[in-house]
Design goal:
single chain, 195 residues, mainly alpha, Endonuclease III, domain 1, two-stranded antiparallel ribbon, 4 strands, 6% strand
Length: 195
């Protein structure tokens, strides 16, 4: 998709369309390697919240998610009470699915139980790609898989540790979003970008 940005024309991955929020996310975040454990925790939770929905739905609610989930401070999310989470089920600023709302706390608790800190969590996640982004060369969106053998392994490992909403498709979307996998199509102006 060719889009005008200021006075320049740029070709982007077709999935981001023309929504300014989506375009900004594509240009500044998606596919850029993220190593900060707290940010990875946030993205894993938000990708799980997306299950059955579109990413733009979650993206539009992300600022509010950050507000009500303590900026994704892992210890604070792990300590959220049932009454706090029940209150969130009435909040139209988030996706009000009980399993997803409680799932954020479950994931924070699993993280705290299995990892000494956020850096160790980051190291664990990045180990699935040998700590280097996998750069693919897809020509079109239709070529990009929904999941891979690597995302299957990540999903299985996270589930074993007690994480929720971490199916293989969610894990692959997470890997794309956090730059573990660079799936910008070959016609996208960011395809050649190396971080």
């Amino acid at each position: 998709m060719i889009q005008m940005v200021g006075s320049t024309t740029k070709t982007r991955c077709s999935w981001c369309g023309n929504d300014p929020l989506y375009v900004k996310y594509h240009d500044t975040e998606w596919g850029k390697p993220e190593f900060k454990g707290q940010k990875l925790f946030e993205m894993l939770c938000l990708e799980g919240a997306q299950a059955g929905l579109s990413w733009i739905t979650v993206l539009k609610k992300r600022a509010h998610y950050r507000k009500v989930y303590h900026k994704f401070n892992i210890n604070k999310v792990a300590s959220m009470t049932d009454s706090e989470l029940e209150k969130l089920l009435q909040d139209p600023g988030i996706i009000r699915n009980r399993l997803k709302v409680y799932g954020f706390r479950k994931n924070a608790q699993a993280l705290n139980y299995h990892f000494k800190n956020a850096k160790e969590f980051s190291d664990f996640l990045w180990s699935f790609v040998d700590h280097e982004p996998v750069v693919n060369s897809w020509k079109s969106l239709s070529e990009i898989p929904a999941k891979t053998e690597t995302s299957d392994k990540m999903s299985k490992a996270l589930k074993k540790k007690g994480f929720t909403f971490v199916g293989s498709t969610i894990c692959y979307a997470f890997m794309q979003a956090t730059g573990m996998v660079n799936d910008h199509t070959t016609d996208c102006f960011l395809f050649f970008k190396r971080y």
